[in-house]
Amino acid sequence: MKQPNVVFIISDDTKHKWLSSYQGKPECQPLPELRVPTPNIDRIASRGTRFDNAFCASATCQPSRYSYLTGRYAGSNPHPRFLSRYPRTRPASVEFNVYLNEDIPSQGFLFGQAGYRTGFAGKWHASTLGPEDRLPEIDPDEKPDAPGMDQKLRAHQQVLSENIKRTAGYDYAEGIVWCNNSPEPLKALDTHHIEWSIQKALDFLDTCSGDRPFVLHYASTCVHGPSALAAFEKDPRFTLGGKVDTVCDALPPRTGIVERLQKAGCKVNHQTASALWLDDQIGAILNKLEAMGVIDNTILVFCTDHGVEPGKTTCYERGINVPCFIAAPGMKKGHISRMMVQNIDMLPTLLDLCGITHKLALDGTSLAPILRGEERELHNDLFFEYGYFRAVRTPEFKYITLRYPEHVVDKMKRKDPDAAPNQTDRFQGNAQVALSYYKDFFAPEQLFDLRNDPYEDHNLADDPAYATTLRDMQTRLDRYLDAQPHPYPRQVPAFMRTQEYLDFVKTRVDAGTGMISWWHLSALKEVL
Predict the structure, then answer these.
(1) Are strands 382-386 and 389-393 parallel, antiparallel or unpaired?
(2) How far apart are the first and last CA of the chain?
(3) What are phi and psi of 222, to 5 degrees?
(4) Is the CA virtual torsion 423, 522, 28, 191 positive or negative?
(5) Domains and CATH numbers, the chain
(6) Among the residues of 293-390, which ranges form H helices?
(7) What span, in angstroms and rounded, lies between the C-alpha atoms of 23 and 381?
(8) pLDDT tens-digit map of 335-364
């Protein structure tokens, strides 16, 4: 039997309730006007399994993508840049600071070594530029149609492409958004470039012939900002790779998305517009696979990197619970699974389904039994990490710890204004939203009964009735911490039990969210 192809599609900042494909999931019932028709995600669901309890191990872009691509927890990252800041002798704050390189086995390298043709298009956010990556000088205030700008932008893309090929092993890397949409290289191009990136993904498929299986990794910038509605007003011919003569016609026109939402009875906002645009992208790829005659021998994955505020950058459910669909030849169709799975499971699953053997010590496990229709837990519990948060989850309970290392505690004692802006070593807008929302954010011990408190509003860690459960969850977490390469304090630092500590972190909460330009309280209704 021929080895299957793989199409791995990942979105950004996506919630279940924006996708009609998750109709029936209990927490998706409120606000039906936010549920967007997603017929193309439904096409994947009808061919395979919808996972209702899929999770990312670290709830933000960079570490989550690292785990998807390597099958490893982000805190085990061996990249020299990460280790220079967090040597193996000290606790690590896991955040936007883990990277791939040529010494780290990941999706592109492993499938390439197994004879697959490998391609990437879209948002990367998984490696860092080195001294050999010499970007052309571009004034960010220049206009996209300035003389010579096309040449500069093409040169800029070429550097990014070579970096991804070198650090992640892909044969093809085009249509690249390096991290989040940003003012670099040009402020005028700080928008979504969906037609351009999806065309590059389709171009890769055009290079794939039947004599060799392929892997396509397509990463959409939806549903992350900037505003999709603002993007609809932009000229899609101006891209991060220069001006193109024609715009991809495999997608419905972006200018018709608002009208389609209105006809479907959906509220029109950034989230709903992005979700519909995302589904269109998935449809373009599925249609291409059908036209090539290979869809029946292709593993299809749609997932997202993490949830959204107020859970993003935390270990709370709203940040770690993510949409996930996997369809594979010969597996059960139309299956809905409530079993706990995690993004560290993605790489071992794909390697297993493709018959690729390896001797890697991966943190995840193959989900093939669930894809065959077996409803049994492959994990007794799951481990999470972000900043100095560490957590463990069972189907019934969640236990979260916050342990600041000694050098951070010393700063707090001195009332250093730069100490502990949140649960990490630096200010992050997402974390500021979270600490303003979760009243026990700074509590060193947090225990939640997920069956009766799914939104983690009631901390039971100090409730004597849950003392046995607390000890069990502590033991479970210790088992994971023992296996991690960095130490992590097991005991609560004495300072974190004092009124002085409570007064210190109260200043962080009292700062509010007014300084975060992209956030406003009314947005809570859209994301909760």
Answers:
(1) antiparallel
(2) 46
(3) -80, 135
(4) negative
(5) 5-380 (3.40.720.10), 388-527 (no CATH)
(6) 317-320, 346-353, 368-371
(7) 26
(8) 999 999 999 999 999 999 999 999 999 999
